[in-house]
Amino acid sequence: MEFQKVLEERRSVRAYTTEKVSKEQVEEILKAAQLAPSWKNSETGRYYVVMSDEMLKKVKEECLPSFNARNSENAPVLIVTGFVTGDAGFGTDGPVNDMGDMWGAYDLGLQNENLCLKARELGLDTLIMGIRDEVALKSVLDIPENVQVAAVIALGYRAVEPKMPPRKDLAVVAKFY
Q: What is the count of structural domains for the chain?
């Protein structure tokens, strides 16, 4: 699929079919995520992929608020994304600038965008859910303490055709000098 078309067709999808997604498709998507740039090539992004019916049910019931559980109801895959803290943005003497661990979050955002765009290229859709219970996710999925959980991404085939929401005028978001 042409890149511009992928950009234009990607949407936050809140209704999925029950069609399964293969482990190979998820691996291809995660490999695309890994191609994103990161601070000193530190690759601190981490992915915890939930695909079994039992674990999907558990994560949706115990780790997501009810509205996000509904938004991802039939999604056959949930990907919990996070980053290793204290690495990206740090030198031997600590943080190299005022952003510190925010570099890890920045890098993960780049990776997650690659993930979402690759999913769309493969005919799949995503929903990035930032409202989640990090403590419960760490417990249920055995995520190490040094990983900051950022989001849960639902992955699957869209059951609806969402419209593109309006975008702000470029003059509002960009300033040229």
A: 1
The answer as to whether 98 is a domain residue is: yes
Look at residue 101 and give its three-state secondary structure.
coil
Domain-located, residue 177 = no
List the beta bridge partners of residue 48: 80
In the chain the first and final C-alpha atoms are separated, in Å, by 35
- Decide if 175 is inside a domain: no
CA distance linking residue 110 with residue 145, whole number of Å: 22
**Residue 132: CATH number of its domain:** 3.40.109.10
- Each of the 177 residues of the chain gets a pLDDT tens digit; together they read 799 999 999 999 999 999 999 999 999 999 999 999 998 899 999 999 999 999 999 999 999 999 999 999 999 999 999 999 988 888 888 888 888 889 999 999 999 999 999 999 999 999 999 999 999 999 999 999 999 999 999 999 999 999 999 999 999 999 999
